[in-house]
Amino acid sequence: MNSFADVFRHYTPDVAPFMHKMLAYYQETQPYKGFSIVHNVPLTQTTLMKIACLKAAGAELVVTNPSFMQEDSNTIKVLEYEQIPYVPLELVKGEFDFLLDCGAELVENCHATKGIVELTRTGAMRYQQHTEFHVPIVSVDDTRLKCLETCLGTGEGVYRAITQIADTDLTNRNVLIFGFGKVGIGIAYYFSKITPNIIVAEADNERLKLIEQRGYQSVNARNSQEVEKAAEKSDLIVTATGLKDIISNNYHPQAFKSKLLANAGAEDEFGFAFETSEVLADKKPVNFILKEPTLMEFLDPIFYAHNIAIDDALNNKKTGFRALDKTTDEAIVTDWAKHHCWTLEKLNSIF
């Protein structure tokens, strides 16, 4: 694919209805004409649809790529063709109207004059810790629609990546998952299709109850001995807590050795006690070894939300951190479910 038009031809309205609708509307209205926007979202061919919409909206764009993944050289060539500057993350700095961020990686060197939109839980927590921002900070992670991407999309991507590169058939094998947030829930859902032997380590009491209600085994993450026992009998161990070094800081690493290890978080969750060679994808988010880490049907609604959250910041100028408007959130989930033939009841049973 050599241009934005090629990308939109490849991902048809059946696959990406939100992006096609947004492109048509932005081409007609150009709502962000003259706005300077720095865009820090994993740079893959799917992300080009999101960037194309912002260009159509009239924005003056600078595009970069998060530190936890390698930028895609073909995608950068498309940006060059479309005359949109790509700047490595460490070189992005200065004042912009909007920061469209992933993991709060723009926070140190960039200043927003109108608003900030954050994509991830890790980034949302970082922005909540910063009180010096005097603009709206809108999180699309604190939404139900984020589950479409993070729970279903990331869960499917992690499952797809691990099963593709594992040296062994994981059918009916023992799987241990750390964390039962959005990502952990999705990973458990997809692996439950091939094995009933799933244990989830979680520290939150309410989530421990939910794990059992969903038919999985649970282990209290605070009980290191029980966790290590679970690790010793596992064939595959996947981290999805969002917490750096959580395994190295809390458990004896020997219990995890000679297992298939995979990290699903932006941070290195296995940590300093593990060599990069001991964890799939060198400790980076395992689904990012794939050409499409998350399938477009799951990215489509969150890309849409990440862009239109600019409107949220423009319409409600209250400063500080908040989630995307709930009415917008619910409408996107309902439209996505209808388009892709999921029932809201089925979604409710998963997340």
From TrEMBL:
| Origin superkingdom | Bacteria
Q: Please give the InterPro entries that the UniProt record associates with this protein.
A: Adenosylhomocyst_ase-like_sf, Adenosylhomocysteinase-like, Ado_hCys_hydrolase_NAD-bd, NAD(P)-bd_dom_sf
Q: Biological process GO annotation list?
A: one-carbon metabolic process; S-adenosylmethionine cycle
Entry cofactors: NAD(+)
Looking up SUPFAM superfamilies in the UniProt record yields:
Formate/glycerate dehydrogenase catalytic domain-like, NAD(P)-binding Rossmann-fold domains
Q: Which family does it belong to?
A: Belongs to the adenosylhomocysteinase family.
Would you tell me the protein name for this molecule? Uncharacterized protein
Q: Which species expresses this protein natively? A: Kangiella profundi
